Amino acid sequence: MGIKELMISFIFTTFLLSLLFIPSVLPFSIFQSSNHSNSSGRPEKPYPVSFAYLISASKGDVNRLKRTLTAIYHPANYYLLHLDLEATPEERHLLTQFVSDHPTFSLIGNVWIVHKSNLVTYRGPSMLSTTLHGLSILLRRCQWDWFINLSASDYPLITQDDLITAFSNLPRDLSFVEHTSHLGWKIRKRARPIIIDPALYSLNKSEIIR
């Protein structure tokens, strides 16, 4: 076989191999571009930061809860609604129907309702336990940067877009909760009242016992 025939055979073989290789590369390239991956290979977030909200309400608060949720809603965030045990079954049904029938909530899927509700006493330990319960649910269900705890009576002073912009340049490990057990001289002056929260052992809501 001459050099000319050898070159033609080599070019033809290379062309066939390239045809076999192209189909295995194209789907991977298309998959990456459709997910808008960045240089690290992870999908880019459409918003710089996201917030997780726990909105708590009680009997007679459904309308205010819906108002607050609508006012602070943003597709970048996540919302967990807690209607405590004092609320009536009709109120729970109204809230569930409101969330399920809302076109945006259903499309984005970032609004949830706590089905196993707690009885909450204002300023009592049950209030803290409900907050921790909500936090654990949000940590399991989604990824977010900051947690905000609200009640149905709260109402925003700024838009969520402004809030996202303001927090976009802050370090993600920044916490706004300050706590220390080093009280110094205050430890001898601190009163230590005994507080009993009836919501921890009773289904009837009442004030905390000091």
UniProtKB/TrEMBL annotation:
Key words, A-Z: Glycoprotein, Glycosyltransferase, Membrane, Signal, Transferase
Membrane topology: Single-pass type II membrane protein
UniProt keyword annotation of Nucleotidyltransferase present: no
GO molecular function ontology, one term from the record: glucuronosyltransferase activity
Cross-referenced InterPro entries: GLCAT14A/B/C, Glyco_trans_14
Residues of the signal peptide: 1-27
GO cellular component assignments: membrane
Positions of transmembrane segments: none
Localization per record: Membrane
Protein name from the UniProt record: Beta-glucuronosyltransferase GlcAT14B-like
Species per Swiss-Prot/TrEMBL record: Ananas comosus (Pineapple)
